[in-house]
Amino acid sequence: AQLPAGTIQIAWKDSGVAPALSALTTYTIQLVVGGNEASSQTPLITCANNLQFSAGSTATCVVPAGVAGSTANGFFLQFTSVASEGGTVINYSSRFTMTGMTGTTGTAQQQGVTALNGATAGPPTVNSVSNGAAAGAGGAGAAGGSQFTVPYHLQTGLTKYAPMQPVPPTKITANQFTPLNPTSAYTVATTWMPRPSVATTLTASQTFSVSSMENTAAAASQPSGDMAKFLARWKD
């Protein structure tokens, strides 16, 4: 398929594979150029960012001509969805060609596309939805959660995963503070850096919950005796 640079229309529907659309809450759509391996992919445009599925099943994306070259079958859409019961599922569109492009496609991305020998299938689906969400959608549960345990600096790809935020204790007893995680090495940039390769960071859904109940204790009675006399002095 070929699409001209400029405004493109995007539409989607339930594939029938768990999780169902009804089990998903928000989505992010990105236009990507490159091969099927994360190391040869570059996100170009974020077409929709953290939008609600309840808002509809279409989106519009404006693609500037200068973001890449007209690489044949080098473009695809990455669709990252967040499940209501935890985890994410990343779906990919088939590949297509963007015509009228005036930019340059990176060498690694071009090589990744060339290695596919003209194949038009996008990368495979990455289903990291929790068992509860997948089962609720009427399908077998997917193995979810393991990606959130991989140290951030060891992760690759367009999407990185952060662990669940801890729940504050009911009482603070520590008098010395230590970081939750070890520090990371860094290098100060002295020249222009390449475009960031990480497009989205997803944090594990919080499983902590609280419950409340009615207070059935009777209201305290009105003051009597000396206290009643004391309060009566201030009525006027």
UniProtKB/TrEMBL annotation:
Residues 5-97 form the Yeast cell wall synthesis Kre9/Knh1-like N-terminal domain. GO terms for cellular component: extracellular region. One of its GO terms (biological process) is fungal-type cell wall organization. Residues 146-225 form the Yeast cell wall synthesis Kre9/Knh1 C-terminal domain. Pfam families: Kre9_KNH, Kre9_KNH1_C. The keyword Nucleotide-binding does not apply. The keyword Coiled coil does not apply. InterPro entries: Kre9/Knh1, Kre9/Knh1-like_N, Kre9/Knh1_C. Keywords: Signal. PANTHER family: CELL WALL SYNTHESIS PROTEIN KNH1-RELATED (PTHR28154). This is Uncharacterized protein.
